[in-house]
Write a structure and sequence with these properties.
The complex is a heterodimer of chains A (216) and B (164).
Chain A lengths: L3 H11 L9 H7 L7 H18 L4 H12 L3 H28 L6 H39 L9 H5 L5 H34 L1 H12 L3
Chain B lengths: L2 H25 L3 H18 L9 H16 L26 H15 L3 H11 L4 H8 L3 H19 L2
Classes of the chains: A mainly alpha (216), B mainly alpha (164).
Chain lengths: 216, 164
């Protein structure tokens, strides 16, 4: 039996005559259109992820909530943590930028995929770190509530509503409530993130795996 | 970027557009997606054009950018309903030298190639374009030995699809 691929090769070269032909103007118009490549999407989503959490501080009600940290005696810790957070964010942005710049369409297919995945991994680590930070703050708040002797001085509005309940019970309910909220918040944010990126890079990961398998 | 560069690029691409069309034919299933992918490849080629130094042929350089875009960078912009009436170029029968039996076999082959994975398609494409294993391996970033091994596996896979 003759090799089918050889037969195909001969025919493939004959098919050229039937291919569509675009005019100079049509091609010229295309070069100014916007790219919708996966790299561009990774950049847009990453910038959003780096900036959105910081914009929260601009919301007035969020600022008011910051008072709770003062009342819980966490003020200095929070300032320290904020400085630390910005340093880490800066490090991640720098790292992201360096890796993003390395992505080149002129690379081999494997290198290109590897570099895109590496760039994404930087953001993934940043997200994991951010989610852990939320948990750390929640844990700090729970400890703050636990160590505080006068819970009504912080949550004044509770004083009238919960006259018949012992402060101990309120403290425990608050701590449990915070813990549950913390876990839900982390899970939801993590869920959205991994879903978003999962869909974005599904094809890329599959192809990268196919290429890597060739090496075994 | 200046007008001269722009003109030079569009002219080069116009003369070599077949390469891009062939990649689009392999990686898409309807007319709109074909156009979409063609556009994305054009944008990527244009963005990378200043880095094209002319030490290799423009067409050689195009293979890499076109395949990288099709395999890795391209994302379908929206969900498409596959149009039934669309017959990809590769399924069209060549008017001259028509041999029904051979034609049928070719149709089956093209269908089988369309069923392959993205990486496998890239290998077959470069092979059909008469590229040697050195160029295939460099474009994909694998070793020459692995390219040969993979190509043999694809050959067998196609045989199985054709003779189940």
């Amino acid at each position: 039996m003759t090799d089918e691929l050889e037969l195909l090769k001969k025919d493939w070269q004959k098919k050229e005559a039937q291919l569509p032909k675009l005019t100079y103007e049509e091609i010229h118009n295309m070069i100014w259109k916007k790219s919708s490549s996966i790299v561009k999407w990774i950049l847009i989503i990453s910038i959003l992820e780096f900036t959105l959490p910081h914009l929260l501080y601009l919301v007035p009600s969020f600022k008011e909530n910051m008072d709770i940290y003062d009342k819980l005696g966490l003020h200095n810790y929070i300032i320290g943590l904020t400085i630390f957070t910005y340093c880490v964010a800066f490090y991640f942005i720098l790292q992201f930028y360096r890796r993003y710049k390395e992505i080149s369409v002129l690379d081999s297919a494997k290198n290109l995929m590897h570099k895109i995945i590496r760039t994404r991994t930087t953001v993934k680590h940043y997200i994991i770190y951010s989610l852990s930070m939320i948990m750390v703050i929640v844990i700090m708040m729970i400890i703050g509530v636990y160590l505080n002797d006068d819970i009504f001085s912080i949550f004044g509005e509770l004083r009238n509503k919960a006259q018949n309940i012992s402060p101990e019970k309120i403290k425990i309910s608050l701590m449990i409530g915070m813990a549950v909220m913390g876990v839900i918040l982390t899970a939801v944010m993590g869920g959205i993130y991994f879903l978003l990126y999962g869909l974005l890079v599904r094809k890329l990961k599959r192809n990268y795996k196919d290429l890597k398998q060739l090496e075994v | 970027m200046n007008k001269k560069l722009e003109h030079q690029f569009v002219t080069e691409l116009e003369n070599n557009q077949n390469i891009v069309h062939k990649v689009c034919t392999l990686y898409t299933n309807d007319r709109d997606s074909h156009k979409d992918l063609f556009q994305e490849i054009t944008i990527q080629l244009w963005k990378a054009y200043p880095k094209f130094r002319g030490d290799s042929k423009f067409s050689t350089w195009m293979y890499r950018v076109a395949l990288n875009t099709a395999i890795t960078l391209y994302r379908k912009s929206k969900k498409r309903i596959q149009t039934q009436d669309y017959e990809s170029v590769i399924f069209k029968i060549a008017a001259n030298e028509y041999d029904p039996q051979e034609e049928q076999q070719l149709q089956l082959m093209y269908k089988a190639v369309k069923q392959l994975g993205d990486i496998e398609k890239a290998l077959v494409f470069l092979y059909l374009e008469d590229k040697d294993y050195r160029e295939i391996s460099e474009t994909l970033g694998i070793t020459e030995v692995n390219a040969r091994v993979k190509m043999n596996r694809i050959r067998n896979k196609l045989k199985t699809i054709l003779n189940p």
